[in-house]
Amino acid sequence: MIRFGVSVYSDCITVFSEDDPTHLLVLTDSGYELSVKSVSNNEATPSVNFYCAGILGAYKLSREIFIAFITDVKVIGVGITGKPIYQVEMVEFVKLPSLEQNSINEKYISMIDQVLYKIKIYYSHHEDLTRRLQDTLCRPLSEEDHYFPTTADHHFLFNCPIIQPFYPFRSILLRDLIPTTIFGFVSIIPSITVEQTSFSLLLISRRSIYRNGRRYNTRGVDLFGHVANFVETEQIVLQNNGIISSFVQVPPLPPPHSQIRGSIPLEWSQTPTLKYAPSIRVFGDRSFLNLHFDNLLDRYGAVVVVNLLDKKGDQLMLGLDPLFYPKITPSQTKRPLEFFWFDFHAECKHFRYDRLAKLFDGTQECVRNGGYFRFDSRTKEVIAIQHSVIRTNCLDCLDRSACSIEFHAGTNVVQTLYAQWMLFYQLFGLKCDAIMKNCASESGRGAMCRNLSNPHDIQHVFNNLWSDNADELSRTGHRTLQGIVNDAVYSVIRYLNNNFRDGYFEDCINLTFNHVQMGPNADRRMKGMIKNTFMMFVAVVLTFELTIISTFVYLAKPV
To answer: Transmembrane stretches, by residue range (predicted)?
Structure first.
């Protein structure tokens, strides 16, 4: 792993690479603007305050600039190039020396730390994790990207907003000092064998940097066509014969398949109230919907929309909105857009996931025709490409329990269904259905989401992989008493967060992605917000505790 030495002085910060300590970068605050210079170092061993793995970015806070250094990482496995993929474990903020002093910045840094603690950030020095394999054709990072992420997909480049101060100095930066990062989920499972076919499996979920937020605070689509909490998931298969394939879904080295997920692309809101399920409000501008689907078609080709909304209540109103259903044909395009509405909660209640066969039967032809990307790493030949993408959503395309950011169970189960079938299709082609039946402990397509007879086979691996991706183990496994208690606790925590804490965390997210206009107004708002939010949160927690105590006292009374 590449390491960089960092020295903090009274007037500057210096950075050098262990590979070449004679080349120093000098970072200074020049009138609230970052300045970077390259100088020669004559010392054989420069003085060092600490070592880092790279720079995540620079934050211009209240009259001061802070550099975010990546101080600890871990290797989670190797990517398609056979080189390590890293997960960021720790980030340290160092203030650029200046005459300005503002204690409020400690609170701003604390807010950013809260977000960095909850999310997972990944990068590689050898491949671009922001782009699907079909776009990179399995090529390694360009020489230019080793110095600054120039060709990365800014939609998924986590540190894009905070590396811009370094852009004017990209020609003098140290190699691999600023990594190309994503946030979301990456998992690598080596050495899997199914029907005498050996392969490795990678799962990459890339979260968009646009319109991130909490459950009720961030909904729908913005005027640029960005939907809340958009995720692109790519499943990559690396076979021992050199074939790489991938399948992409939206919110190997061989073969990849991609899916996406994201909020319902209408202009709508669900403002937090003291109700457990706040009312939904839909606004009447169709142009943002059209823009969103135009963007998807430009990026992925055809789109298969799988809508998991309930067919009752506010969700029925949202799903039947004339802006969304059934007229979702994008403007000025003749490319196909398929729409399927499957009431997940009604069809699969009581964990009847075998009923997903109904959804799969209706969409299988679209998924098969959409295909997947396939590449021969030995001959560098593109064998096939993915022509369409599956876009899955329920009301909460992203959800969270126990105060952490997580994927929603319904969306995850459906994406797992498609990803599992596509994995067998990638490996075995037209024989996939027969081989899946042979692997399953129960016959029929409905068994795709059930456990297999062999706990070490692909079904077991798949369940664990996508459960990690969703972080929803207690919701998709066996229904135990402990699971019921956990769900009840999470529901109370969610209720409290929705009404009293998510607004604050929303500000933390906006600050992390550099979406806050810094200045005196921001300082005043932040000081008052922390105090008021904390007091309200404490008051509601005490109210719930008193209610629970009163209930137990009442039940304990003799009849």
So the answer is: 534-556
Which neighbouring-strand residues pair with 184? 206
Helix (H) or strand (E) run with residue 437 in it: helix 432-439
Write out pLDDT tens, residues 152-181.
999 999 999 999 999 999 999 999 999 999
DSSP string, 19-87: TEEEEEEEEEESSSSEEEEEEE---SS---SEEESEEEEEEE-SS-EEEEEEEEEEEEEE-TTSSEEEE
Among 502, 483, 531, 364, which Cα is nearest to 433's? Answer: 364
| pTM for the whole structure | 0.80
Residue 406's nearest CA partner among 303, 493, 285 is 493
The tens digit of pLDDT for each residue in 351-383 reads 888 888 899 899 888 888 889 999 998 898 999
Query: pLDDT tens digits for 286-342?
Result: 677 778 888 888 888 888 888 888 888 766 666 555 444 444 454 544 457 888 888
Write out the DSSP string of 448-490: GGSPBSSTTSHHHHHHHHHHHHHT-HHHHS---HHHHHHHHHH
For the CA atoms of 303, 306, 312, 317, what is the dihedral angle to 10 degrees?
A: -10
Of the candidates 259, 248, 252, the one whose C-alpha atom is nearest the C-alpha of residue 237 is: 252
- Determine how many CB atoms are found less than 10 A away from the CB of residue 551: 10
Task: Name the 3-class secondary structure at 268.
Answer: strand
